[in-house]
Amino acid sequence: MTYVVAPRTGYVYDDEAAAVYVAPLPDGPLLVLSDSAALIWRAAVGRLASGHGQVDASAADQEEPPGDNDAVTRRVAECVGATADEIRADVATFLGEMVRRGLLAEEHPMSERRDGG
After folding, report:
1. Cβ-contact 6, 25 below 8 angstroms
2. How far apart are the C-alpha atoms of 15 and 6, rounded to whole Å?
3. Got the DSSP string for 30-65?
């Protein structure tokens, strides 16, 4: 299962503030993600350039595939200089909250759908 931006969700990156502004459309409310939350969001939707917590604005148009829990955790760990085990629970909690709020959706690959997964 991978994470994708949910339908009817708008988001904007603010590279100068290292933030992501996310809202269910059309009525909101607007959620401002900063610091680790912004990193996890970017990693989940495939818009994270690696480099110890720095998001490379020049790579903003270079997308990676959406990530599953392990891929997102690995991407964030590389950026912050931590091990995946150190941050796995926090990443899973954040992703779960974004799904609960309807901002991210869980997408099952075709192979899982055919197998009934």
Report:
1. no
2. 22
3. -EEEEHHHHHHHHHHHT----STT---GGGTT-PPP
For residues 102 and 11, is the Cβ–Cβ distance under 8 A? no
Q: Are 41 and 98 in contact (CB under 8 A)?
A: yes
User: Does residue 41 contact residue 13 with C-beta atoms inside 8 Å?
Assistant: no
Do 14 and 57 form a contact (C-beta atoms < 8 A)?
no
Give the list of residues 6+ apart from residue 32 with CB closer than 8 angstroms, or none.
19, 20, 21
pLDDT tens readout for residues 49-82: 543 334 444 444 445 677 889 999 999 999 999 9
Query: For residue 58, with 0-12 CB atoms within 10 Å meaning exposed, 13-18 middle and 19 or more buried, which class applies?
Result: exposed
> Is residue 21 a contact partner of residue 11, using CB atoms and an 8 Å limit?
yes
Residue 59 confidence (pLDDT): 41
The amino acid at residue 25 is L
